[in-house]
Amino acid sequence: MKKISIFLVFIVSVISCSHNSAVTLRNDNDTLAVKEDSIESFQTFIKVFHHDSIFAHARIEKETVGSNTDDYEYDTLGNPHNTERIWTKEQMMTELRMINELLTDKKYKVKYEANKDEMVETIFLPESGFILHLYFRMKEKKWFLTEYYYNNL
């Protein structure tokens, strides 16, 4: 009987401790639970970003800086100009649907690079001129898409 009492006290202690340490925050704008005072993991973020369109919409800047080689204008010598573009959130959601489709095709490769204060996701078709760069920056301990460059040369 004494062993059962000690075991029950132990179980109750574990449950109460785990309940107190499992505090999570939820924001109406996103569905990813983040522990209080912790920085969001990029690996977790990027998986949810590519699989949950509502989450992705909340994590795309209102205007995303970038470019699209299909929109370039060229001078008489063939040099591109007017290469910078501002993507709206709606345009980025359309691009993201296309990107997510590409990610299901094994021909396309993905690599990640960490820079000073950002993560870069590069999606490309080897031995071609097709490459996408998505730049993510940390804001208030969460990742956001801030730049997008579409290159199809």
List the total number of helices.
4
The helix/strand series, from N terminus to C terminus, equals: HEEHHEEEEHEEEE
Q: Please indicate the percent range of residues in DSSP E strands (runs of 2 or more).
A: 35-45%
Cα shape: globular
Helix/strand/pairing class, anyone? Answer: alpha+beta
Average pLDDT rating: 79
Give helix % range. 25-40%
Distance between the termini: 77 Å
Query: Can you count the beta strands?
Result: 10
Spatial order of the strands in the main sheet? 6-3-10-9-8-7
How is the biggest beta sheet arranged? 6 strands, mixed
Unreliable sequence segments = 1-29
Quaternary status of these chains? single chain
Rg calc = 22 Å
Question: Which key phrases capture this entry?
Answer:
153 residues; alpha+beta; six-stranded mixed beta sheet; two-stranded antiparallel ribbon; 4 helices; 37% strand; globular; disordered N terminus
Task: Summarize the SSE layout with pairings.
Layout: H1 2-21, E1 24-25, E2 34-35, H2 42-51, H3 53-58, E3 60-68, E4 73-74, E5 80-81, E6 84-88, H4 89-102, E7 109-114, E8 118-124, E9 130-139, E10 142-152
Parallel strand pairs: 3-10
Antiparallel strand pairs: 1-2, 3-6, 4-5, 7-8, 8-9, 9-10
Structure summary:
This protein has 153 residues and is of the alpha+beta class. Helices cover 33% and strands 37% of the residues.
Protein model, in words:
There is one protein chain. This protein is an alpha+beta fold. Helices cover 33% and strands 37% of the residues. The chain has 4 helices and 10 strands. It has helices at 2-21, 42-51, 53-58, 89-102, and strands at residues 24-25, 34-35, 60-68, 73-74, 80-81, 84-88, 109-114, 118-124, 130-139, 142-152. The strands form 3 sheets. A 6-stranded mixed sheet has the order 6-3-10-9-8-7. Strands 1-2 form a two-stranded antiparallel sheet. A two-stranded antiparallel ribbon has the order 4-5. A hairpin with a 3-residue loop joins strand 7 (109-114) and strand 8. The radius of gyration is 22 Å and the shape is globular. The N and C termini lie far apart (77 Å). The relative contact order is 0.15.
